[in-house]
Amino acid sequence: MVDQIYYKIQYPLKKAIDLMKDLDNHDLDSLGKNLNNYDREKIINFIEGWNNGGREKLISLIHDLKAHQ
């Protein structure tokens, strides 16, 4: 079970955090110029989902996982 949690949740979150850290070192305006409409739409959808309950779902999942430890 721990391996499944790591590979399905912790590892992707770690990779996403590492990617965000890399983005902090870039000029986001120039990065945005290189994105196509599909990628921009994916980013917009992610942010909207995060702001409309996605954050709470992640927090709830973390609390549930901690309760099973």
List the helices and strands and how they pair.
Layout lengths: L1 H23 L3 H6 L3 H31 L2
Write structural notes for this entry.
The protein is elongated. It is built from three helices and no strands. The mean pLDDT is 80. 87% of the residues lie in helices and 0% in strands. The chain starts with a helix and ends with a helix. It has helices at 2-24, 28-33, 37-67. With 69 residues, the chain is mostly helical. It folds into two domains: 1-27; 35-69.
Tally the beta strands: 0
Q: In whole angstroms, how far apart are the ends?
A: 11 Å
**Please, what is the average pLDDT?**
80
Structural class: mainly alpha
**H/E element sequence:** HHH
By DSSP (H or I, 4+ residues per run), the number of helices equals 3
Helix content: over 70%
Largest sheet features: none
| Beta-strand proportion | under 5%
Q: Rg to the nearest angstrom? A: 15 Å
Shape: elongated
Number of domains: 2
Low-confidence stretches: none
What would you say about this model in short?
With 69 residues, this protein is mainly α. It contains 3 helices and no strands.
Keywords:
single chain, 69 residues, mainly alpha, 2 domains, 3 helices
